[in-house]
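quick q for whoever's on today - can somebody do inverse folding on this one?? i tried earlier but teh output was garbage lol. C-alpha cells:
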C-alpha cells in the first residue's frame, strides 16, 4: 500500500476531499501523515479529529533549507511515497524536490500556465478571462510550473466575486485532485518533456 504525505497550511478542504476518496476506496493508498506549516491551520485540527497522524511543523522564522530538512525527516520517517501539497503556502527547496522526483503533486486554482502564484482567482477576474479553472501538476523547481496531470475548466460569470469564483473552482479541485492521485498511483503514464501521457 502506497503511503501519502499531505502538506497544508490552512483550511484543508482538499485534504478532506482526498481523505474522503481514500475512505471510499477510490485511492489505493493510506494517508501516512498530515503536516501543517502553521499550528493554527484548520486542516490540522480536522486531520486530528478524523484520527489521522497529524503533526504541526511551524515554518515561521525558519530558513528554507532548515525547514525543508525537518519536513524531509518526517516524511522519510513515515515512509511516504507520494507528497501532496494541499494549500501548502511555502516554496520547497530544490534539494527537497530532488528527494521526491516526480513524487510531489500540487493543486493550483487556475488553468496553468495562466495566473501562477498567489490569488489566482483574483488574477483571473482582473484579467477578465471568461474561463479559468484548476490544475493538478507535478512539482518541479519552478513555481506552479511542473508537468500537468489533470485540469478542469470553470466559467467566469458576470456577477462573480473572488469568493463565488473560488467556491466554484474549489468544487472542481475536490473532484480532480483525487482523480490525479489515483492516476499517478496507478502508474500508467509517462512524462515526455512537459507532457504527462497516459497509456
Ligand atoms: C486551494 O484553492 C488550492 O488550489 C490552493 O490553496 C487552496 C487551498 O484550500 N493551492 P484548502 O486548504 O485545500 O481548503
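ok took a stab at it. sequence:
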Amino acid at each position: 500500500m502506497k503511503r501519502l504525505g499531505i502538506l497544508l497550511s490552512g483550511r484543508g478542504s482538499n485534504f478532506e476531499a482526498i481523505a474522503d476518496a481514500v475512505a471510499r476506496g477510490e485511492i489505493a493508498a493510506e494517508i501516512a501523515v498530515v503536516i501543517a506549516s502553521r499550528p493554527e491551520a484548520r486542516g490540522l485540527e480536522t486531520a486530528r479529529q478524523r484520527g489521522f497522524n497529524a503533526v504541526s511543523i511551524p515554518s515561521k522564522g525558519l530558513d528554507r533549507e532548515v525547514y525543508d530538512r525537518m519536513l524531509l525527516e518526517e516524511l522519510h520517517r513515515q515512509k511516504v511515497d507520494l507528497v501532496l501539497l494541499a494549500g501548502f503556502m511555502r516554496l520547497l527547496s530544490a534539494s527537497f524536490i530532488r528527494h521526491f522526483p516526480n513524487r510531489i503533486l500540487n493543486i493550483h486554482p487556475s488553468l496553468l500556465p495562466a495566473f501562477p502564484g498567489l490569488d489566482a482567482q483574483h488574477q483571473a477576474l482582473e484579467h477578465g478571462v471568461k474561463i479559468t479553472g484548476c490544475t493538478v501538476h507535478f512539482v518541479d523547481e519552478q513555481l506552479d510550473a511542473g508537468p500537468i496531470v489533470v485540469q478542469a475548466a470553470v466559467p467566469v460569470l458576470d456577477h462573480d466575486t473572488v469568493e463565488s469564483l473560488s467556491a466554484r473552482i474549489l468544487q472542481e479541485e475536490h473532484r480532480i485532485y483525487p482523480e490525479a492521485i489515483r492516476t499517478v498511483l496507478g502508474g500508467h503514464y509517462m512524462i515526455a518533456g512537459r507532457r504527462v501521457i497516459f497509456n
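fwiw The beta strands are 2-8, 29-36, 54-56, 82-85, 104-108, 131-138, 148-155, 189-192, 195-198. also The two ends are 22 Å apart (CA to CA). so keep that in mind when u check it
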